[in-house]
Automatic annotation (TrEMBL):
Residues 125-193 form the DOT1 domain. It comes from Rugamonas rivuli. Its EC number is 2.1.1.360. It is an enzyme of class 2 (transferase). Gene3D superfamilies: Vaccinia Virus protein VP39 (3.40.50.150). The keyword Lyase does not apply. It holds the Pfam family DOT1. Keywords: Chromatin regulator. This is Histone-lysine N-methyltransferase, H3 lysine-79 specific.
Length: 353
C-alpha cells in the first residue's frame, strides 16, 4: 500500500493510451484545496431551516454573555458534533454573513431536535476526499470484486473526484455522483468538462487512432476496449440532490466518504437496505454500517488504505427475514473535556478578532 503520492509523471505528448489515462487522473486532483463559498440565503433555498438554526447558534457564540447558554444547548448532542465547535459557526464556515431576515427565531425558540438535526447536517457539509495515493490503494483493494458493467454511485460526491476516477479505472457501465451543495455540483460539472476536453485532445493526438474495439488495459479494472475512453462522457453523470431522495436500487457499488456522516449512518443504512439488491456492495469510511442487511467483506484499518478506516460491505438476505437494525453509538467525547476545549477555542477566537 502507498503512503504518499508518487511524483507526477510529466505528460508532454500522447503516445499511448496510458498517457491519456495518466493525464486524466492528474487533471482531477487537488479538490480538497477549493474555496468554500457561503450558502446563499434565498426565500426558496433548501438550506433555509439550516441557516435559521445556524444563525441562532452563531448569535450565541458572538454574544459572550450567551455562551454558557450555547454550551448548554450543544452539550446533549456531542455525538453529532464533528470536532469541538460546529464547523459552520467558525469564521470559515458556510453560513451567510448577512444579517438574519425578520422572523428568524432565537435559539430559545428552537427545539433540541432541531439543534441535533442541524448538527448532523453541519457535519455532512464538511468536505473531504481521498488523496490520489489513498484512492489508488482503495481501487487496488476492491478491484477483484468489481465485475464488468454495473453502476457505481457516490453519495455526497463533492467535486466528483471519486466518480471520474472510478469511470477511468473500472469497466462500470455508469458512474453517478450525488451532491447536495450546489457550488460543489457546479464545480464537479466544470471539472468533468475539463476532463472530457482533455480526453478528446489526448485521443486525437495518439499515433494510432483508438477504435471502439482497440484492446485496452485499465489502470485497475483489467482488460477493456477503446470504447471505455471513447464513451467516457456517456458513462459519467452528476446529480444535484439530497442523497436521501435519490433511489440507488440500480447500483452495484455505493461509495460514501462518510467520515462526517456519523449521525446519519443509521438512516443511511436503512435507506440502502431497502433499496439495494442482494449482492451489491457498499463502501464507507470511518463509520460502520450496523444494519443486518450488510455483511462486512473487508475492514481496512486507519493507516493502511487511507488515513481513516475503510469498510466494504455486501447486501445480503431478503429484508423481511432480517432482524431489526440496532442504533449505533457514535463516538462521544467526555463532556467536561469538550467544554474545556470549547472555552479555549472561544478565547482563541476572541484573541484573533
Amino acid at each position: 500500500m502507498r503512503t504518499e503520492d508518487r511524483p507526477a509523471r510529466s505528460i508532454t505528448s500522447f503516445q499511448h493510451p496510458d498517457d491519456v489515462f495518466e493525464a486524466l487522473f492528474q487533471s482531477i486532483q487537488g479538490g480538497e484545496k477549493h474555496v468554500r463559498p457561503p450558502i446563499v440565503l434565498t426565500p426558496d433555498s433548501p438550506f433555509l431551516q439550516f441557516i435559521e438554526v445556524g444563525y441562532a447558534l452563531r448569535a450565541c457564540l458572538e454574544d459572550r454573555s450567551r455562551r454558557d447558554y450555547l454550551i448548554q444547548r450543544l452539550r446533549p448532542h456531542l455525538s453529532a458534533i464533528i470536532g469541538t465547535l460546529p464547523a459552520s459557526l467558525l469564521p470559515h464556515g458556510m453560513l451567510p454573513r448577512t444579517a438574519p431576515p425578520p422572523g428568524f427565531r432565537p435559539l430559545e425558540q428552537i427545539s433540541d431536535a432541531e439543534v441535533r438535526a442541524w448538527l448532523a447536517e453541519d457535519g455532512s457539509l464538511i468536505y473531504g476526499e481521498f488523496q490520489r495515493y489513498e484512492l489508488d490503494n482503495y481501487f487496488e483493494a476492491i478491484a477483484p470484486l468489481i465485475p464488468p458493467g454495473g453502476v457505481m454511485v457516490d453519495l455526497g460526491s463533492g467535486l466528483g473526484k471519486v466518480v471520474m476516477s472510478a469511470a477511468l479505472a473500472f469497466p462500470f457501465q455508469r458512474c453517478i455522483g450525488v451532491e447536495l451543495m450546489g457550488y460543489r455540483h457546479a464545480m464537479a460539472i466544470e471539472r468533468l468538462h475539463v476532463l472530457l476536453a482533455l480526453a478528446r485532445q489526448g485521443l486525437a493526438a495518439l499515433p494510432s487512432p483508438l477504435t471502439p474495439d482497440t484492446p485496452l488495459q485499465l489502470p485497475f479494472g483489467g482488460p477493456a476496449h477503446g470504447s471505455h475512453l471513447l464513451d467516457l462522457a456517456a458513462r459519467i453523470a452528476f446529480i444535484e440532490a439530497d442523497m436521501f431522495k435519490v433511489d440507488v436500487r440500480g447500483a452495484s457499488l455505493v461509495f460514501m466518504y462518510s467520515t462526517c456522516f456519523g449521525p446519519l449512518m443509521d438512516a443511511l443504512g436503512d435507506k440502502l437496505a431497502r433499496e439495494m439488491r442482494e449482492g451489491a456492495l457498499v463502501s464507507t469510511t470511518t463509520y460502520a454500517l450496523k444494519h443486518p442487511a450488510f455483511r462486512l467483506l473487508h475492514y481496512f484499518p486507519a493507516g493502511t488504505i487511507a488515513w481513516t478506516s475503510v469498510m466494504l460491505y455486501q447486501r445480503v438476505g431478503p429484508l423481511a427475514t432480517l432482524a431489526p437494525a440496532t442504533a449505533q453509538a457514535a463516538y462521544e467525547p467526555d463532556p467536561e473535556a469538550w467544554e474545556e476545549r470549547v472555552r479555549r477555542d472561544l478565547a482563541a477566537l476572541d484573541g484573533a478578532a
